[in-house]
Amino acid sequence: MIQKKLLISVTILYSICATQMAMSQTKPKQSKDFYQTKAPSIKNNHSDTTELFEEEDNDEGAEDTTPQKDYNPRKEMSLVSEDTSSEQEGELSIVEVAEEIKIDSTWITYAEYFAVWDSKSVNPYKIDGSKFSDTLYLTLYDTVNNFRYAMPLGNCKSTSLFGQRHSRWHYGIDLDLETGDAVFASFDGMVRICQYDGRGYGNYVLIRHYNGFETLYGHLSRQDVKVGQLVHAGEQIGLGGNTGRSTGSHLHFEIRYEGNAINPEHVYDFSSNKLRSKMFKLSPEHFEYLKSARKVYYHRIKSGETLSSIARKYRVSVNTLYKLNRMSSRSVIRAGRKIRIR
Ligand SMILES: [Zn+2]
After folding, report:
1. Domain boundary residue among 246, 274, 289?
2. For the chain, N or C: smaller number of CB within 10 Å?
3. CATH code of the domain in which 157 resides
C-alpha cells in the first residue's frame, strides 16, 4: 500500500564550514536478527500532583516548538535555502536537496522539508507532530543500499528516559558516559547545528539524516564537526561531557522527525546496543505524547509553602514562576490558591 521511491541528491553548493570527510569510521556492529526485536509499547507517564490544562511547553530549554499558524508545509518553497544568520561566523551554508516519496498515492516532495536549513534552531519546521496522520516507512538499515547505523555511544546505558520529568517533558534519552568518551553519528547525514546552549543542551550537535530523522547529541565537552559537514554512521562527532543544563556527565540523545521528537527507545534497543528494526514504521502514535507534553500544569498551594519551596519541588526557577503567574518578588501567595508551574 505504501510505496516508496527515493531520489536523493544533495549538492552542497557552498559551505564555508564544510570540511573534509573524516577518513576513519567505526563500523557499526551488526546482528542477524536485530530487526526482529519488538519495540516497546508506547507509554507516557503523567505527573500525579498536577491538574491539566491545554497549552505549550519547551524542552531542554533550547527550542520553541510552538506551531506557527502561518507555516504551510505544502506551500511551494525554493529548493535552495540560505541561512544568513550572522550571530555565529562561518555558518553560511547553501544546500540543494531534491527527494520524492510516494505516500498513499500522494506525491510529496521532501524538498519542502529539506529546504528548511537552519543552523540555529532545533525545530525550524514548525510542524505540529500531534496532527501527523500518515504512516511512513523509513529505511534505517539496508546493506544493499549501504544504509548503515551506529549506536551513539560505544556502550549505551540509559539513566533517564524519554517522557514526563518533573514539570517538564524530557524529549530525549540520557545515556551514561564519562567526560571524554567518544560520541558517534547514528546514521549517515549532514551536520545542521553545532552550537552552544548554556541553559539547555550545552555543546550540542544536530545531524540531518537521509532516512528522514534528525538526531541531537547534547552536553558534549567537545564538538568534532562543523555545520554542513557530511558524516557517516559511526563517525566520531564529539566527546561526551557535562555542559549546559546538566548535573553529571551524560549524553542527551534525541531523535526527531520534522522537528518533533520521538522516543529513541522505539528506534534503538539501548540495553542490547542495537537497532530495533531496519525499517522504521513512523505512525501518529509516536506523537501522541505531544498532547500531554504541552499541557499547562498547576499546583494548589498548601499552607507553609513558599515560592522557593514550590520552585524546588517542580525543579523550576522562582523567576519562571514569576513569569508564568505575572508575579514579582513582592507578591504574596495564599494557601488554597492555584499557581501555574508550567
Ligand atoms: Zn536529557
Report:
1. 289
2. N
3. 2.70.70.10
**CA gap 84, 89 in Å, rounded:** 10
Ligand 1 centre to CA of 65 (Å) is 17
Q: Cα of 206 to ligand 1 centre, how many Å?
A: 14
3-state secondary structure of 114: helix
52, part of any domain: no
Domain residues for the domain of 300 are: 296-340
> Does 134 fall in a domain?
yes
Q: Do 197 and 308 fall within a single domain?
A: no
Per-residue model confidence as pLDDT tens digits over 206-257: 999 999 999 999 999 999 999 999 999 999 999 999 999 999 999 999 999 9
Query: What is the pTM (predicted TM-score) of this model?
Result: 0.65
CA of 156 to the centre of ligand 1 (A): 14
The string over 241-276, giving b where at least 16 C-beta atoms fall within 10 Å of a residue's C-beta and e elsewhere, is: bebbbbeebbbbbbbbbbbbbbbbbbbbbbeebbbb
